[in-house]
Design goal:
Layout lengths: L12 H11 L25 E5 L4 H6 L6 H12 L7 E5 L6 E4 L2 E4 L4 H18 L3 E5 L1 H8 L5 H4 L3 E4 L2 E6 L2 H6 L2 H24 L2
Length: 208
């Protein structure tokens, strides 16, 4: 698991690339059978912030990269608004395969189960060990519960600085939740995400 004594000392891109290759053959749960491919994290070793969402979506599953769809574009805007350099953020998901149900030609998102989270957590732990971030941001309730336990309530603790294995953790909403917000409240929801990312950026700056 995450070794806090080595925080700030990146494992190197070659080690991340090795992890990515090994994750590409993961069959630890049944999701690999229907997904197009494993969607591993994206970013550099030494990034000060790791952002972890729930799972890849349809576009991410096809592209093989996290946060490349509408939610990813909104996240990029939020990072820019928060003054966080995109190069200083490593983005990933707790679950690495897309879970969905088929409706005609459409693939509809299904929330990963506890068994899928358990199967994938070693990959996230390995990513944290190689990246050595200064702060971890969970995007959405599923990602937060995966690390903080099933009793965690995002509505109660959103924007608070918490801790995961000695690493500062901040839980906030998933960008897709902002996109689902009614038009008359979407700007407010976006501003809330930006505010949380501002706090994450400040925490990263102040952590050694």
């Amino acid at each position: 698991m995450y070794d806090t004594e080595l925080r700030g000392t990146p494992g190197g891109m070659d080690e991340l690339d090795d992890l990515r290759r090994r994750a590409g053959g993961c069959t630890a749960c049944e999701l690999y059978a229907d997904a197009t491919q494993t969607v591993f994290g994206s970013g550099r070793a030494g990034a000060r912030i790791v952002l972890a969402g729930e799972q890849p979506g349809d576009k991410e599953d096809l592209a093989g990269e996290p946060f490349v769809g509408p939610a990813g574009r909104l996240l990029d805007r939020a990072l820019e608004g928060a003054g966080v350099d995109r190069e200083d953020a490593y983005v990933t998901n707790v679950v690495k395969h897309f879970r969905f149900r088929q409706e005609g030609k459409r693939r509809i998102h299904r929330t990963p189960g506890v068994e899928h989270v358990r199967a994938c957590l070693p990959w996230l732990s390995s990513e944290l060990a190689k990246v050595r971030p200064r702060v971890l941001v969970t995007l959405g309730a599923t990602a937060a519960k995966a690390l903080l336990g099933s009793s965690f309530r995002l509505t109660q603790h959103r924007g608070e600085l918490l801790e995961f294995e000695g690493l500062p953790l901040l839980a906030t909403v998933h960008p897709s939740a902002v996109l689902r917000t009614p038009d008359d409240r979407r700007e407010e929801a976006f501003d809330g995400l930006v505010a949380d990312l501002v706090l994450a950026g400040r925490t990263a700056e102040n952590s050694s």
